[in-house]
Design goal:
- The protein has 19 helices and 2 strands.
- With 451 residues, it is mostly helical.
- It is globular, with a radius of gyration of 21 Å.
- Helix content is 74%, strand content 1%.
Length: 451
Amino acid sequence: MVPKQTNDNGNKGTGERFSSSKGFILAAIGSAVGLGNMWKFPYITGENGGAAFFLLFIACLIAVGLPVLLAELAIGRAGRGSAASSFVKAGGGKVWGRLGLISVIAPFLIMTFYILVAGWTLHYAIMSFSGRITTDVDFNAQFSSFTGSYLPLVWAFVAMILVAFVVIRGISGGIEKFNKVLIPGMLALLVILMIRSVTLPGAMEGVSFFLSPDFSKLTPEAGLVALGHAFFSLSLGMGTMITYGAFVDRNQSLGSATLAVGAGDLIYAFIAGLIIFPTTFAFGIDPSSGPGLVFVALPAAFSAMPLGWLFGGLFFTLLAIAALTSLVSLLQVPVTYVMEKWNWSRNIAVCSISLLVFLVSIPSALSMGLIDIEIGKYNFFDFIDFFASNWLLPLGGLIVTLFAGYFWKNAAQEAGLTAKWFRIWLFMLRYVAPILMVFVFLHSTGILKFE
């Protein structure tokens, strides 16, 4: 283990490290398997034909997601700095450090609305376990009433305190220990809920929808959606993997870690599908019913099944764990930046940024029904989500691919690949990933449209 230093700043590199390969991989998986896999993945799969879309997602994950993930981890370990300075310390010019700031700003903005959704999951977990969620059969009105009140801010504050408590304890003492406990716990909950879902009457129709591909339903737009989700589900373009890479030991195989994180993300998405689709089909719910699937449709399903309060509570606890492990990695990105940039202590950095995140989350919460806060055609919540997810993340990923593919002289040494695999990796970074990411960017921003 590398000895700890008194600070993490400057060209000396960060003194903190993950204490083990297992701890690092679990933390990276915790970052990757967030709410997107359980909340977003089911309904976009439902909208795009089920199993065929899932296979397309796997292809995108392997062809583009994994090469970019390896590049981010390698840049972080080479630079031993923040998501911005690692580009410079790895051998790039100052312009790369400025471009890297996108990967510091993006996670901050994402946290400001993600912390609200994390609060929703905590609220719904308590409501489910207490049985109160079934007292009102109009679940759409129930959700609207909740998000249109001040309660989401209370729960967001609770979630922010939990996340700050973990990050303030450092890399090995906080983030690593947190993920070592919660990731296995999350897997156990996934398996329990999957068994319950596939044994429901009529569940096999949902299993068939998820696992029997109909390629006639695939469209060019579905391809770009699958690619964008593969990118988002691995936490790419938001600085988390670069930041985590900065705390990885030199003896760690980044290629093996990349495969492990990709496999963890894929397994999580697969089991999530075997939870969502059997449940929706068993209770006659449209699996393409949009983001409201989780907070409106599924509570209705849980209320109708035996011991629904228990399984609903476990489901929302699972969502809460996924949200919190992702938020921990997101918070660490700006924390690392300000500790390095202004020589702040970890305590001051975590407390200051956590407070700022919560304050910026207030207009997002209010815009959900209390106050009319709009930017263009979006309310404030949706605008921050749209801008961070559809503009900053693709740009952040594009910067990584261009740097690693064209400008980084020591890419081969840091990636640790054999000559054959390095050539394949470099080809994907130079000629495949950047082009596809440009298409994702144009599509997600509405510039490229399909009839």
